[in-house]
Write a structure and sequence with these properties.
4-stranded antiparallel beta sheet, alpha+beta, single chain
Length: about 100
């Protein structure tokens, strides 16, 4: 079954994580986007607290669900301490409209 793995990281990790994902043999591609985080889930700087949001990057990776553990284990090893938040969502369908 296919799933969508969302990785939420600090913008300072953008280049390193993009390179890591591009070089990973089990990942065919991904989408990334700049986002704003809200809430008390992560520590915020004073300026982020004043703004009420924190800048972050989201990476969307479509994978077979049996590959997710391997990818997460690799991320844990390569980005220890990076506080990467993730979501694993089942995909009921995906494809390309031509």
């Amino acid at each position: 079954m296919k799933c969508l793995l969302a990785l939420i990281v600090k913008p300072s990790l953008e280049a390193a994580l993009s390179d890591w994902l591009l070089l990973h043999p089990q990942i065919d591609g991904f989408t990334s986007q700049l986002a704003s985080g809200h809430g008390a889930g992560h520590a915020m700087s004073i300026s982020e607290q004043v703004e009420g949001q924190r800048k972050q990057m989201i990476y969307w990776v479509e994978l077979d669900d049996e590959r997710v553990k391997t990818v997460l284990d690799g991320l844990s090893s390569s980005f220890a301490g990076a506080e990467i938040h993730y979501w694993q969502l089942p995909l009921s369908a995906s494809g390309i409209i031509l």
